[in-house]
Amino acid sequence: MARRPLVMGNWKLNGSKAFTKQLVEGLKAELKEVKGCDVAIAPPVMYLAEAEAALTGQSVIALGSQNVDLKQSGAFTGDISTEMLKDFGAKYIIIGHSERRQYHKESDEFVAQKFGALKEAGLVPVLCIGETEQENEEGKTQEVCQRQIDAVLNTLGVEAFNGAIIAYEPIWAIGTGKSATPEQAQAIHKSIRDHIAAKSQAVADQVIIQYGGSVNDSNAADLFTQPDIDGALVGGASLKADAFAVIVKAAEKAKS
Length: 256
Ligand SMILES: O=C(CO)COP(=O)(O)O
Fold this sequence. Notes:
Keywords: Cytoplasm, Gluconeogenesis, Glycolysis, Isomerase
Subunit structure: Homodimer.
EC number: 5.3.1.1
Shape: globular
Enzyme class: isomerase
Number of strands: 8
Strand order of the largest sheet: 1-2-3-4-5-6-7-8
Bound molecules: 1,3-dihydroxyacetonephosphate
CATH architecture: Alpha-Beta Barrel
Structural class: alpha/beta
InterPro entries: Aldolase_TIM (IPR013785), TIM_sf (IPR035990), TrioseP_Isoase_bac/euk (IPR022896), Triosephosphate_isomerase (IPR000652), Triosephosphate_isomerase_AS (IPR020861)
CATH class: Alpha Beta
Number of helices: 11
Low-confidence stretches: none
């Protein structure tokens, strides 16, 4: 089944007001002809207003966020709600990134709750999963990915993955320059899709599974040749308009 690819930039803790405006302008210029690939950027939440303003009047690049909290309003210092993200036009919301699981001790169950909150709000969860280097060496990659997915499957049901995104991001590949090979990533992506297909083939067929971890302008095209790699979640290379555009266009070409 043909799935429309999604390439998303996760800016992480980088940028400024000026940088946001400049990068969005650069992306708009580079990507204005793109038709066969969905594109999203997740700037730091502080700069959503600048990004929203700079994106006005075009429809190629959607806005996203790197995180969300569970509460809607009240005495929850520092939290950000789904409604606040919607207020800025954010659509694709990253949850369960390994950096949040590691530095903020976010559990599988907590991430699944965020998934549910996003679905309820009509936003698109981008659920990050992936194993550590040690788990990889111990042959536990599939087990870890399935456990992280099961937290959602077992609480919200398989239908929750309709219209949702999964980003397979092996932790050993993030920011290391050491991407998984296309074959390695394909094998895991297929196992993730098969795991969902065991509950519903139709849901598995439509779910977008992005690869993330040292994707750049020179390795993206090879990754996208694989049938179950439906796009990319890009960190470092999403901070440069030209490199990010090469990745988007590689996805568009490979999946057309
Ligand atoms: O964590 C990532 C995207 O969410 C990947 O980061 P890099 O592309 O910098 O390896």
